[in-house]
Amino acid sequence: MKKENRIWFFLLVVIGFTMLFTTNCTKDDNTADNPTNGKTSALFNPKLAYSTLTDQDGNSYKTIRIGTQTWMAENLRTTKYRNGEFIPEITDSIEWGNLKTGAYCNYENRNSTEMIATYGRLYNWYTVSDSRNISPLGWHVPTNDEWTTLITYLGGETIAIMKMKEKGEMHWSLFNEGSDNSSGFTALPGGWRWGLYFMSMGDGGYWWSSTQDDNKITAWYRNLSIQPDETIKPYILLKECGFSVHCMKD
Question: Which residues contact 57 (CB under 8 A, 6 or more apart)?
Answer without folding.
Answer: 30, 34, 77, 78, 79, 80
